[in-house]
Amino acid sequence: MEEEEDGAAEEQQRFSYRQRLKAAVHYTVGCLCEEVASDREMPFSKQTIAAISELTFRQCETFAKDLEMFARHAKRSTINTEDVKLLARRSNSLLKYITEKNEELTQFNTEQKAKKKKQLENDNTKSVAPAEAEAAGKDGS
Question: Where is this region: Disordered (predicted)?
Fold first, then answer.
């Protein structure tokens, strides 16, 4: 009996989480539609916004499942940028954008690692130098 209650509570929690995600997608789509409507002076009906929101949510679910399958097929438990590129392969402009952003992030991460390494080397040099000077002072006395 207790297991059934736990299962029901877990199911309710998943449903609630899904509803919150749907609401967030609906809100974001509404904001984007308002922005486009003000730029183009062409308003969107509430039904159109709801339809775009539902379509977006379902497409995201499909993307998530596809990404999971790509990673599994590669015998990985983590989705990576190669999976995302594979997902975007049919849209040349999207694939180009993702590739460029990935290269920018890779370059930034490489620069950050180099800075950290240099900082560590500088810190080690500074901490070793006083110790060597102290040791030399003791030997010279």
Answer: 109-141
Distance CA 72, CA 66 (A): 10
Element (H or E) spanning 115, and its range?
Answer: helix 92-140
Q: Which residues of 20-40 are buried (b: 16+ CB within 10 A; e: fewer)?
A: eeeeebbeebbeebeeeeeee
- What distances in angstroms separate CA 76 from CA 67, 79, 103, 137, one per listed residue? 11, 7, 22, 57
The rounded distance, in Å, linking the Cα atoms of 60 and 24 is 13
Q: What is the pLDDT of residues 76-133, one digit of tens each?
A: 999 999 999 999 999 999 999 999 999 999 999 999 999 998 888 888 877 655 556 5
Tell whether pTM > 0.85.
no
What whole-number distance in Å separates Cα of residue 54 and Cα of residue 22? 8
Cβ(57)–Cβ(21) below 8 Å: yes
Q: What confidence tens digit (pLDDT) does each residue in 46-60 have?
A: 999 999 999 999 999
Helix (H, G, I), strand (E, B) or coil at 110: helix
Total number of residues shown for the chain: 141
